[in-house]
Every structure is written in structure tokens, then in C-alpha cells.
Inverse folding.
């Protein structure tokens, strides 16, 4: 079906009155972030993408770090990596286009192996995911026999296949404590993000064994950034992602996943807020939090920014680039991810206790 309609969708991208009317509701959410000239370029692409999705029975999973034109314009499901994983597992679409980086597309394929999973740019990688291999996880398990391995979802399929259960920043503490009880141990291996591991260690009595991986976006933040913002904007509310270094978390007012940060802003409506995470996060929350002033600093993820409207359009139109996972890895990786998805709902909001966050707790680093 998609090849038969390709000629129609390859028509010149013109900003016609019909396109303007078709995309008016989307522009209403984006007008503060997109200039009228930019919108004349984006609107035809958004209209074409949304038509193609219907023709091809495709859905677009858009991470919170996607640019607003993707997040609000073409994303069918938006949110953090845990939310997108759940949507991939239950979607009845034939095709999934991943508005995110490669490990997210692999996770979609692991959970829905019968579906076609596309990523608009194969270069959309992740510094954290590339910091650890399945072979290294096997060596870690040999070094620490009898201890469960909790793997952050920001990892490749071969790493997930070697783990006992995955976690996200939203449920890392819950998963660590759950697996420790299940295995009857007081120590857990939590890999590969060293800062997530250090921050989780401050929230639990479980001993954490960590790997020296890091997100290139979040590791660049430091406590001086927050001190500078507070000095120039007294009373500002600082929200941080748990992939940030512990000194950043300790200096913040709230720590949680991207979804938790978004929920905090929309529910509490602080007068001024700074999100210590990827820049597009603030742009996407703005539409749901009128009257809230978003301040910088923020850092751009070069990998997330490889995903563009044009790339999504080409991905659908040309059926590129398909993401595959070794069939031998899928059952084991799926088990680890599904265990995460099947965790009972959190009894308290997915946030980090800020009193505990300011206490120092050592982790054992794998060397």
C-alpha cells in the first residue's frame, strides 16, 4: 500500500491554504516556538507525514527530547523511554517509526518483533548505550556471581539480553529494591549510568555496584550552573534529571524522569523553572504550562537532533531505515524489558527524595 501511494506523497511541499487549515490546530501549540516562515516549511511536511501514517498503519513514538515540530506535530505517543516502551508493546500498528535514538528503536523491535521498526537516521546513537557491551556484562556477572543485574533501558539489545531486569530513571529505585528482595540479597549491579547509580544509592539501603558510563548531555551539568541561575533568578524552581551528577541533584528542588518533570511543571505551575536536561524538553512542556517562564541552562543532545521532520517523512516514504535485532537475543532481552513493564505501579510519584539526595553514599565502581 505504501509504495502505491508514494507518488502522491512525493508532490512538492507547498504551503497552501488547504495545508494551513489542515495544520491550524497544531500551529496553535507551536506558534510561540516556530516563526511564520519556519511554519510554512514545516506544515506541509507535517501534513504529509500524518497522511502517510494513516495509509501505512504506522505510528510515531516521540521521545520528550524531540523538537516541538515532531513532538506536537506528528508524534502519536509522546513521553519518556518507559512510556514509549509500553506503547510499542501494545500498539496495533504495522510500522513503528522511532522518534528517538537507536536503543529506543531496538527496544521497540524487542517488544514487537513482528512489526517493522524504522528510525529516520542510523547515526542517532547514544553515548551511554555505547559505553557497555553484552560481553562486558557477561564478565561483570562472572566477577559478581549471585547478584542480580539491573540494566538501564538506555542500552543496546545485546546488553539487555544479559540482564535480569531493566529500569528507567522513573522506576530505578523501585526496580533495585524489588530485585534485591526477590533474590534475597543486599547488593545489586546497576549499569551502565554511573550517575543514575550514585543517585539511586542515596535513595535506598541496597548497596549499588556501578559502571562508569554517562550521558554526554547530563554529565556536562554541574552545581555551579544551578548556583548561577539561582543568583540571577531568586526563587527559581530547579528540576533535574537523575542522569545528572549527584552534586547537581543535591542542589536541585526536584529530581525525576522527563515525564515526572513535565508533570511537576503542569501541576505546580512555578513562576520560573529551569529543567536540567536536554533543551527540547522545556520547549515541549511550554505548551501545557502557560504562564511558566522557562530558563536555561540546558544542553542539546546531538543524537536526538538527528531526527528531523524531513527524516521522518523520508523514513515513511522510502521505508528507511529498518532496525533489526538478532532473533537469538530477542527472547532474553524481551524478558528483561517486560519484567520492567510488569512492575506494579509506583505507590508514590516517580520522584527522588531530595533530603536523601543530599546524603553521600558510596557505590562500588566496576574497574
Amino acid at each position: 500500500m505504501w509504495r502505491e501511494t508514494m507518488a502522491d506523497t512525493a508532490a512538492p511541499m507547498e504551503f497552501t491554504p488547504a495545508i494551513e487549515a489542515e495544520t491550524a490546530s497544531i500551529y496553535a501549540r507551536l506558534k510561540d516556538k516556530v516563526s511564520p516562515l519556519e511554519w510554512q516549511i514545516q506544515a506541509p511536511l507535517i501534513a504529509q507525514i500524518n497522511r502517510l501514517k494513516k495509509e501505512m498503519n504506522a505510528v510515531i513514538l516521540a521521545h520528550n527530547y524531540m523538537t516541538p515540530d515532531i513532538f506536537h506535530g506528528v508524534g502519536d505517543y509522546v513521553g519518556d523511554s518507559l512510556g514509549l516502551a509500553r506503547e510499542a508493546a501494545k500498539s496495533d500498528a504495522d510500522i513503528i517509526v522511532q522518534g528517538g535514538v537507536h536503543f529506543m528503536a531496538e527496544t521497540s523491535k524487542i517488544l514487537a518483533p513482528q512489526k517493522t521498526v524504522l528510525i529516520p537516521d542510523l547515526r542517532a546513537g547514544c553515548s551511554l548505550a555505547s559505553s557497555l557491551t553484552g560481553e562486558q556484562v557477561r564478565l561483570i556477572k562472572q566477577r559478581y556471581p549471585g547478584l542480580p543485574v539491573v540494566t538501564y533501558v538506555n542500552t543496546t539489545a545485546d546488553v539487555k539480553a544479559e540482564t535480569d531486569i531493566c529500569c528507567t530513571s522513573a522506576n530505578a529505585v523501585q526496580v533495585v529494591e524489588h530485585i534485591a528482595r526477590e533474590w534475597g540479597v543486599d547488593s545489586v549491579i546497576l549499569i551502565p549510568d554511573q550517575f543514575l547509580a550514585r543517585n539511586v544509592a542515596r535513595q535506598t539501603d541496597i548497596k549499588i555496584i556501578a559502571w562508569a558510563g554517562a550521558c554526554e548531555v547530563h554529565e556536562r551539568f554541574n552545581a555551579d550552573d544551578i548556583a548561577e541561575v539561582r543568583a540571577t533568578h531568586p526563587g527559581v524552581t530547579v528540576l533535574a534529571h537523575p542522569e545528572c551528577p549527584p552534586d547537581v541533584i543535591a542542589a536541585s528542588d526536584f529530581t525525576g524522569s522527563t515525564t515526572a518533570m513535565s508533570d511537576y511543571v503542569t501541576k505546580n505551575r512555578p513562576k520560573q523553572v529551569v529543567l536540567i536536561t536536554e533543551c527540547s524538553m522545556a520547549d515541549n512542556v511550554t505548551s501545557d504550562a502557560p504562564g511558566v517562564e522557562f530558563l536555561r541552562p540546558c544542553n542539546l543532545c546531538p543524537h536526538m537532533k538527528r531526527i528531523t521532520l524531513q527524516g521522518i517523512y523520508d523514513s515513511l516514504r522510502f521505508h528507511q531505515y529498518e532496525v533489526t535485532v538478532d532473533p537469538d537475543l530477542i527472547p532474553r532481552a524481551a524478558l528483561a524489558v517486560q519484567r520492567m513493564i510488569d512492575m506494579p505501579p509506583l505507590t508514590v510519584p516517580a520522584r527522588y527524595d531530595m533530603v536523601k539526595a543530599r546524603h553521600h553514599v558510596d557505590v562500588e565502581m566496576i574497574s
The CA atoms of residues 137 and 213 lie 13 Å apart. The first helix runs from residue 6 to 9. The radius of gyration is 21 Å. Confidence is low (pLDDT under 50) at residues 1-11.
